[in-house]
């Protein structure tokens, strides 16, 4: 759960971060969504980390590659269940930083993260399982107690109810079944949308600093 004020989150997120076409081309991660599953990352995990981490990483690979033929809703449940077993730990304790967006591999190495890390890991894993990028949005929400929080939302199509993957809930629920959440903004590799501008079209200029830094670390893994 995010313990920062709304302004301290939204203003840095709206700050424009220009990226070169090498880092983000026209298709961003859509055409390279399996890059972070390359053998080098696997080798790094096996060489540098404990047996428990290797086993978790192997389970992750099996989750991705052994379930590509499943239907969308099975994939959503498998990924949601997998990551919701991680330990919830604040960034200050986990990374000694006030705010840090971990890559999926970093989250698995620690087997821990906060709500941003859960959402990011689910997002990239579902991309690797061939869920279309435009159907997934990492979403900053405000809870009934005005606490900030982040979830992943799956949008089946224009006529179907969005589904919310939340580390605080075991089950995947429809948006109408989560009246406790108020959407503030959402984003993915294609752009960022404010809740009061649902028709905005994504552009590279929407990519935010924390997101860009996390993507760079994925590319280096």
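-> sequence recovered:
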């Amino acid at each position: 759960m995010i313990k920062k004020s709304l302004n301290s989150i939204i203003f840095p997120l709206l700050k424009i971060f220009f990226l070169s076409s090498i880092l983000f081309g026209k298709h961003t991660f859509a055409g390279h969504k399996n890059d972070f599953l390359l053998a080098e990352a696997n080798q790094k995990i096996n060489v540098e980390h404990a047996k428990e981490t290797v086993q978790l990483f192997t389970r992750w690979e099996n989750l991705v590659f052994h379930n590509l033929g499943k239907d969308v809703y099975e994939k959503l449940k498998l990924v949601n269940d997998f990551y919701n077993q991680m330990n919830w730990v604040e960034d200050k304790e986990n990374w000694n930083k006030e705010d840090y967006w971990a890559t999926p591999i970093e989250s698995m190495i620690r087997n821990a993260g906060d709500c941003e890390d859960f959402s990011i890991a689910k997002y990239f894993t579902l991309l690797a399982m061939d869920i279309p990028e435009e159907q997934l949005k990492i979403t900053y929400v405000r809870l009934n107690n005005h606490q900030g929080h982040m979830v992943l939302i799956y949008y089946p199509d224009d006529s179907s109810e969005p589904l919310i993957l939340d580390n605080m809930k075991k089950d995947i629920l429809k948006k109408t079944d989560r009246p406790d959440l108020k959407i503030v903004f959402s984003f993915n590799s294609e752009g960022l949308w404010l809740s009061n501008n649902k028709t905005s079209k994504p552009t590279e200029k929407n990519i935010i600093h924390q997101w860009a830094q996390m993507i760079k670390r994925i590319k280096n893994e």
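The beta strands are 87-88, 112-113, 136-142, 148-154, 163-165, 173-174, 182-188, 191-194.
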